[in-house]
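tool_call: predict_structure(chain=1)
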Amino acid sequence: MSWGKNINALILAGGESLRMGMDKGELVYHQKAQKYHLADMLIAMGLPTYISIKKTIVQSNDYHYVVDKIEDIGPMAGIHAAFTTFNTAWLVLACDYPLLTNHHLETLLKHRDKSKVATLFYDEMSNQIIPTLAIYEPKFFQLLSKAIAQKNYGIQYLLRQHDIALVSVQGEELRSIDTQADCAQIKKIINGKSIH
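tool_result:
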């Protein structure tokens, strides 16, 4: 299915991953580094795909990249760099969700509300929105730039102050993996069943 020419995909792979102790984008759950696994999934869906990284991270010739222009502000850095590179909507996803499938992404895309500043998943169990699994419309860039200028780097807070569309999810499939223990547990789950 074609999702149109007005949306690109961005994989957030520029984080510190302090709790994990290593770059989460380099973790291997599905035969290759997670950032490349996600990139291949998005490319197969027909989306122009970019990997968001810091200046210090080595780039592969096989993929396209967006390099952070501002550092140490969390996921805002990658989203900001993406908007300054291309004035389009962005499907944004972090490397933290190894059970994420193209079914989840298609669900998000189908529920996209262009009249809102963003469409994102909402975890009913934790009552949390998930800013790192979301579609950001071009009009979000102005709000993001203003927040960064004011040194307000809380993206959850920023989103909750504006008109957003939520797509509810339940269960463990979009659980964030943040520690080595989480990683070991999720690998057992993946090895025990087929993920498509």
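agent: The chain has one domain: 7-192. Proceeding to next step.
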